[in-house]
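User: Could you go from structure to sequence for me? I need the amino acid at each position, not a summary. Structure tokens:
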């Protein structure tokens, strides 16, 4: 499933293609949304933004298309009406004179007015977005110490979008490694210094992944490994997907476990 950095990069690409331009046509695959095709035709896209793993495309008539890629959704930007050869099903298309923004395979798409947007059952419950420039380390640290989350294991807490939105499975492993925290600990088990490390890593690792197209490893190390001919999967992450391979910091073999229903990776020496 795409995580916050991937959705934000998709939002950037969509904005570049369709923002501040009127649509020539809009297509919805779902019957209950068909009436909005005419309503949104000719309207200008004013903002394209991500909110955690959700995408919001706002129009100048105060309507917003909400979508969530879930596991299989994928956005593609093409020349206008230039559809790719794919077995995926087209669920949403927004066209202007030059470009088409195409959403394939996603099943969660809605058109919302301002009131519905404010009270949306998913959006209204999201925690602070770690990719929002307004989100601070202090705010995230306070979140870890909040009584609603204080006694939950970090392995499950970091997947909860009501805690912090935008984090997901690979980021969970990478944040915990950078913070040097064992995944079975709870915020309540951590010292003030450890909480600060968790807060800093939650923001820093996610922002680096956004800027560097998913690379969460030390950037100099990743560059040297790439120059040595290593595949992207071998240099992208510190620990995620690297079971039985040596930790880049201490050389201890990386451990893989299934925690909170998802695979998680950590170094048993660095993360004590």
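Assistant: Here is the amino acid at each position, in order:
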């Amino acid at each position: 499933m795409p995580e916050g950095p991937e959705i934000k990069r998709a939002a950037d690409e969509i904005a570049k293609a369709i923002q501040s331009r009127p649509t020539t046509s809009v297509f919805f695959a779902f019957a209950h949304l068909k009436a909005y095709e005419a309503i949104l035709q000719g309207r200008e896209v004013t903002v394209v933004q991500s909110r955690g793993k959700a995408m919001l495309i706002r129009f100048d008539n105060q309507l917003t298309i909400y979508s969530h890629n879930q596991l299989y959704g994928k956005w593609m930007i093409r020349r206008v009406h230039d559809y790719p050869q794919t077995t995926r099903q087209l669920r949403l298309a927004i066209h202007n004179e030059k470009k088409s923004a195409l959403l394939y395979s996603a099943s969660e798409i809605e058109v919302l007015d301002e009131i519905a947007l404010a009270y949306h059952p998913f959006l209204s419950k999201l925690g602070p977005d770690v990719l929002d420039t307004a989100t601070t380390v202090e705010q995230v640290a306070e979140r870890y110490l909040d009584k609603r989350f204080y006694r939950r294991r970090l392995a499950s807490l970091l997947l909860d979008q009501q805690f912090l939105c935008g984090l997901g499975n690979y980021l969970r492993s990478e944040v915990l490694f950078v913070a040097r925290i064992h995944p079975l600990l709870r915020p309540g088990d951590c010292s003030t210094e450890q909480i600060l490390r968790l807060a800093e890593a939650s923001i820093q690792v996610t922002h680096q992944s956004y800027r560097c197209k998913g690379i969460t490893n030390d950037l100099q190390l990743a560059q040297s490994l790439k120059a040595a001919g290593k595949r992207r999967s071998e240099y992208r992450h510190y620990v995620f997907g690297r079971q039985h391979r040596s930790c880049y910091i201490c050389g201890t073999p990386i451990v893989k476990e299934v925690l909170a229903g998802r695979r998680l990776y950590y170094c048993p020496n660095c993360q004590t």
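One structural detail worth keeping in mind: The radius of gyration is 20 Å.
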